[in-house]
DNA sequence: GTATAAACTTAGATGTATCTAACAAATAAG
DNA sequence: CTTATTTGTTAGATACATCTAAGTTTATAC
């Protein structure tokens, strides 16, 4: 039996949003999805009805939403296209990492496997996008490395910034202004227990205080202590 | 008074189709437009109503359709994005000229002036796309060079292929198979008056018979006779 | 110059994607 | 454990983009 079923851009956006909101957890509340997509609750409801019929989500009345296996794969492939595009824009077209999300948000819906595989080839099959997020492979499998947040690290921790949690233009411009980019070495000099502000030493020379809000969005790895 | 009015992809496709069908002439018949877009007549009708209200087309009942000045500009800017994309795909991503139309058809709707201007810059502000069609400038102005068709040339004419009339994959693959590409020198050896077939000498060495259908789609310039 | 054919228009229907208003269920608060 | 609040659902409305069926106008043919 042969199925040729194409999803609208809108449907793709719902799948993507559910995928991203269920990162780590298994389900998402309709309310959360509605806020994430900027649509009202009944809209979520009618779209879930459609995606349910297509076998892409699981959802029973008054219960949270999750993706089926095929929904997950479909979402991962859209995210693959999004992240390859972001990488292409940064590496091959000299865009800043703060400029690429909006463009990739549109490019990701282009129907042309060869277009994205050409990007992939030109980029040498990158494993991460410019914000440090993993790029799913052609089968929709994605490395689920769960980097800790800077805000969860303790005093004296020696770290490297490997990803950001959020690709909003404002946040990335904030980081640019402070010359904070992926790969940067950081040491936690102090943590203010009252508000979660952290004082960080960058590259062993520059010292700066970062708010909890910012520290929540910076993902790090422990630096090899043998070094 | 401030207007922020965005057109849907569908509207953009109508504007583009009208622009291309009114190349050289001033109007297009609704029927022609309907066939070109693959929609039924009433669909044309209701879209014309909308584009009329937006001041993008001129149309009165039972009369042909034309673009207003602002409709023309808008269409030209979409075509600019399409043709820049085609050029980018060929020059920077190593696609064949027969592969790019379908992809550009989708990319042209992306809303990001900087994305296309970056392409333009990387390409060195090209004046033609890979099929020899002029690329409109940022103001929507387009060089209207009207190259003659090969089929309108006479015996013994010495020519250079400068553009094709049609970017369909099948036609371009047909040309690829015969190693016919832009810039190729051609001499008309004979014209069959019965069916319009032409015998052409390519690059002063290779001889081939081309059907009228093909000759209608090949656009040429007269080679400088002083050469 | 009427008859016929082709092109065009109107009216009304369908499916997508959204909304508001009103109602129902689940959760939180007292 | 009842009440209030939040969350979720249903029903019905709107706008877009399309269709079919039926009627109208223009063009073509004889």
* Strands of chain A, total number: 7
**Biggest chain pair contact, residues each?**
A-B, 19 and 19 residues
Mean pLDDT of chain A: 92
Helix content of chain A: 25-40%
Topology readout:
The structure is a homodimer of 227-residue chains.
Chain A: H1 9-21, H2 30-37, H3 41-53, E1 57-58, E2 66-67, H4 69-93, H5 100-107, H6 113-122, E3 158-164, H7 169-177, E4 185-191, E5 198-202, E6 206-210, H8 212-215, E7 218-222
Antiparallel strand pairs in A: 1-2, 3-4, 3-7, 4-5, 5-6
The first copy, chain A, binds a DNA duplex (30 and 30 nucleotides) through helix 3.
Keywords:
homodimer, alpha+beta, Arc Repressor Mutant, subunit A, SH3 type barrels, globular, DNA-binding
